[in-house]
Amino acid sequence: MASPPDSPANQEEHWRKTTNLMLTHLGIWFFFGFIIHMFVNTLNKVTIPVLGFPLGFYMAAQGSLIVFVVQLFLFAKQQNNIDREFGYAEED
Amino acid sequence: MATQTSTAASEAFYKQLGRMYGTYTGGFIAFIILLAILEQLGTPNKVLGYLFVFFTLAVYAFIGVMTRTAQVSEYYVAGRRVPAFYNGMATGADWMSAASFVGMAGSLFLQGYDGLAWVLGWTGGFVLVSILVGPYLRKFGAYTVPDFMSFRFGGNFARFLAVVVLVCCSFTYVTAQIYGTGIIASRFLGMQFEIAVFVGLVGILLCAMLGGMRAVTWTQIAQYIVLIIAYLTPIVILSTAKFGIPIPELTYGQAIAEIGAREQQMLQQNLAVLCTAQSCPAGSLKEHIVPFTTWTPLNYFGIIFCMMVGTASLPHILMRYFTTPSVKEARDSVAWSLFFIFLLYFSAPAYAAFSKLEVYTNIIGRDLEQIRPWLFTWGELGLIQICGKNATSVADVVAACKAIAGHPGVVRLQDFVINTDVIVLSTPEIAGLPYVISGLVAAGGLAAALSTADGLLLAIANALSHDIYYKMLDPNAPAIRRLTVARVLLFFVALIAAALAASKPADILAMVGWAFSLAMAGNFPALVLGIWWKRCTTTGAICGMIAGFGLCLFYLLTSRYFPQAGVKYFGMSSLLNPVTGGPLVNTAQILADPKWAADVPASAANPLINRVGWFNLNNINCGLLGMPLGFLVMIVVSLMGKEPSKEMQAYIDEIRKPRGRTVLEEKT
């Protein structure tokens, strides 16, 4: 803790990091929610070995969902680390 | 020292919850086994069905009564001590409605790839909840979403707007849930629909009325356990029987490959007509994995977007995150919520694939005489039709098909019409499972509908009692009177919703989709800018909410109820068929027909309804028009005005830091 928690500099830096994390995760969300499904026809030409799913279908039915779940646990952890770094985390 | 004791206490509480719900889950499984034994001993199906429904309802009511409370903060936010994991389960039940449980697999069956828009849209939104909105509202310390709007945007006018948005999106939604309980109970128990609706109503009131949020939270967890066991059991058994692996989410890939092969075969044998760019008659084949046969790409991605952003704007979901002990737990809790929701959503396509394979191989192409008997139970309810008539018996089907000129005597795809609700409800029968599994599925569907209805009713009643009555009409009301008002309002809102559901309104299921677009247009810009942009002013937010919500509502109402005016005065044109690219309806011809031109507001039979619009945009996606306008107006008007006070900006800084006291301190 370089500067005291309530100094404007500390506050701004905390919010800058938080905003960056938000934008990163929005990017991931947008990619797996939309961009990847725009290539469904191309992806459908690939079949997942053994399971037999066409890849494009699989991404919309399961792949993106798994990404969202993992992403949320990761985000919770990262944001918590940021809060702790700046002394804004709740006591635990 | 104080924090240490409270940590120890919360750990003990957590352990106690684990024991309670562990015992409950074990008890529920024992109950299923007991009923399975009773079935083998010859207990009639109807008795089993009643036992299932009444036992589960009794458990929910028991929890509801045990957790009654006379404390305001317990009533509104469950005392803010629901651990992340359990709040995740409660949110899962709150979220997954009759539409998810019963309807979604059916949409996937009919729409193939395009149905996945719902799967994606109803999961990805939680990413937005967690990173943009939920944890900040928790830190703010509100009881309701309008609380936040009022604080951030200068008082009661913003509060009132937020209540209007909340009631508009939640009321139709709750009516649909009560309607869902009626459908499920009437189908499985053979009750009359109207009576079934009121039985559902009693179940809902017993859970929510005495204990508010606290009671709803603990019953929703119990309901989640029932619904997820009920949803997964049939397909796990089916997958094991068919492919030898009890994980349907992995094995349905093979089913999809088989469906693809069978589709080609059906086309070669003239059992189906392919929907092509030249012609796409009703009942033609949409290949299961081929995208954009039901929705144009714009509408497909529009649905995903609207459902996702709508998730992050729906008050009954956001308020679940007000109940966690801390901001950190609110974030963890969103992740757990999505995990628990994911368990159901990534299984739904397996239902669709297994059912489709059954229909394509054992019904399509079969002699009319050899139709499998499970069909007729659903045919009698009017849910499966063959050759244009309800499939009630072999003789009826043969007679109906003979009446069609040149019919080959085998079932063709275009002869076969199935209601989407049948897919999940009939799977146990298709798989030849004992009736106890069907009863389990009914109990699960009821749990899904009841839990969502509880959450929505609470959101509406809380907004009316806390925001309208307490904050706007009588700020000095003592706690006991506030809670009495809350309960009375809850009762009447539930009663009105049940009365409306019993009248079977035509658009009830479509309205669930509309709720997302309305919530998105009305709430999302104000929530996000309120937290993320200090410069956003009161005037800006109010103008933006009115403009965004207004445009969305206008588009919905015009295209549904006044399509003639939409075409004549507002430049709407026919939506296009996603495969052929041609218009769905000939608007000029229909308007020239006095029968339809004078049909104002448009009746359900009017060919124009929901088929006209701007930019080929389906009206379920009206949020796609409203939300950007809301953002634009909010930003422009805010920049024209003076920036918010230093004090307000300091409050916003406070919301952004998890540490410290909540901004809003309620007297209780």
Q: Can you offer a commentary on this structure?
A:
The complex is a heterodimer of chains A (92) and B (668). With 92 residues, chain A is an all-alpha fold. Chain A has a domain at 45-92. Helices cover 67% and strands 0% of the residues of chain A. Chain A has helices at residues 8-33, 40-44, 55-85. The longest helix of chain A is centred in the last third of the chain and has 31 residues, at 55-85. Chain A is elongated, with a radius of gyration of 19 Å. The model of chain A has no long low-confidence stretch (mean pLDDT 91). Chain B has 668 residues and is an all-alpha fold. Among the domains of chain B are: 1-34; 539-656, no CATH class. In chain B, 70% of the residues lie in helices and 2% in strands. Chain B contains 27 helices and five strands. In chain B, helix 8 packs across helix 20, helix 10 (212-243) runs antiparallel to helix 19 (435-473) and helix 11 runs parallel beside helix 15 (348-362). Classes of the chains: A mainly alpha (92), B mainly alpha (668).
Short description:
With 92 residues, chain A is mainly α. Chain A has three helices and no strands.
Kindly list the characteristics that best describe this protein.
heterodimer, A: 92 residues, mainly alpha, 3 helices, B: mainly alpha, 27 helices
Count of DSSP helices of chain B? 27
Number of strands of chain A: 0
**Model regions low in confidence, pLDDT < 50 over at least 5 residues of chain A:** none
- What's the order of the H and E elements of chain A? HHH
Q: Rounded to an integer, what's the Rg of chain A over CA atoms?
A: 19 Å
Strand residue content of chain A: under 5%
Give me the secondary-structure category of chain B: mainly alpha
Biggest interface, chains and residues, is: A-B, 50 and 47 residues
Count of DSSP H/I helices of chain A = 3
Report how far the terminal alpha carbons of chain A are from each other: 18 Å
Helix content of chain B: 55-70%
Give the low-confidence spans of chain B.
none
Q: Tell me the total number of β-strands of chain B.
A: 5
Strands of the widest sheet of chain B, in order across it, are 2-1-3
User: Major sheet of chain A, described briefly?
Assistant: none
